[in-house]
Amino acid sequence: MRNYAKLSKRLIHWIKEKVENAGCQGTVIGLSGGIDSAVTSVLCRKAFPNNTVGLILPCYSNSNDAEDAKLVANQFNIGVKVINLNEPFDVLLSEIGVEESKKEDNMAIANIKPRLRMTTLYYYAAKLNRLVVGTDNRSELKIGYFTKHGDGGVDIAPLGNLVKTEVRELAKYLGIPDKIINKPPSAGLWDDQTDEEELGITYKELDHYILTGEAEPKVKRKIEELDAKSSHKLGLPPVPEF
């Protein structure tokens, strides 16, 4: 059982150390309205009270997500900027020849959204001399549940060693609103999309396997298949040895 008070302090110190060692002055975080970004933004705010900004980057997103992001930002006094990416998304799809009828429920198209967000986050990070702080947790990293060069395109990932259930406990300790803690996890790629429905397994099952190596055969097989299929997301591009 983790001591979440101690963990919080260690993560805040770790963020501060990584940013300063990089010669930067603060942090930039994408605020999605979900629990991972809420926890990450609060930790960053504690590490850099005057140099943390949260970017709310809707791209044909559920408006409730932006409201949830603002709820966290207001409660913890996190500076925010809202940048609507609908038009850049439309222009890009038009230029690459995507038909209007094919915009929804297409993963190749949906992944453009987090990649536009990544580009925007890095613009502000470069402008302000800050690091882009990622929100991916250990559970997502294990099975590659993130977009390569999208939400996976970050400088540091403070939650990368915490499974989803541990993130929830840390959120409770930090005082994240219950509304955020209890909402179904979603990548927000399309309407009514949820992580667990898309994956076909629950975070409880995934976390239990990560922490103990135990799972029902069907669940274990699914996790190992996802892990193997997505391993390329976690490393540098392969280069020949000759």
Description of the structure:
This protein has 242 residues and is α/β, with parallel strands linked by helices. The protein has one domain (4-233): HUPs (Rossmann fold, 3-Layer(aba) Sandwich). Helix content is 52%, strand content 6%. It contains twelve helices and four strands. The protein has helices spanning 4-21, 35-47, 63-75, 86-95, 107-110, 112-128, 138-143, 164-174, 178-182, 195-199, 203-212, 217-229, and strands spanning 27-30, 52-56, 79-82, 131-132. Strands 3-2-1-4 form a four-stranded parallel β-sheet, with helices on both faces. Helix 1 packs across helix 2, helix 1 (4-21) crosses helix 8 and helix 2 (35-47) packs across helix 8 (164-174). The model has no long low-confidence stretch (mean pLDDT 93). It catalyses: deamido-NAD(+) + NH4(+) + ATP = AMP + diphosphate + NAD(+) + H(+). Catalyzes the ATP-dependent amidation of deamido-NAD to form NAD. Uses ammonia as a nitrogen source. Deamido-NAD(+) binds at residues 115, 148, 155, 232-233.
